[in-house]
Task: structure prediction
Amino acid sequence: KSGYMESKIPNKERPLILVAEDDESNFKLIKAIINNRCDVLWARNGQEMLNLYEQHGEQADVLLMDLKMPLMDGLEATHIIRQSSPDIPIIVQTAYAFYEDQQQAMVAGATEVLVKPITLMALRNSLKKYVPGLTW
Result:
């Protein structure tokens, strides 16, 4: 379900996070970590993320972008979004801990890189940097 969210309309009182993740179990882990503190919209690949960003980018507080996805990877999607939106925080998540992968993500425009498996503390600490008032 692309763009899946519990409530179909983001609540303006809550932060909105757009998540690009092709693996459903990884997405469920991210949702569990965020623990209903934010609204979340889900894209399964980079192209879906571009579509979500086009529809909801004005309201989005943070983008959480997987690197390796079908159709369009996270590097390309990050690069495209960064060209039109220099200030939106883009947290890239990758299973590849190699320095080169992290550097490629930063060159593409990532604000920060988290290495999978994503831990509760790492994701929450990262989100708190970019979403004012977010607490756990």
About this structure: The chain has a mean pLDDT of 90. DSSP finds five helices and five strands in the chain.
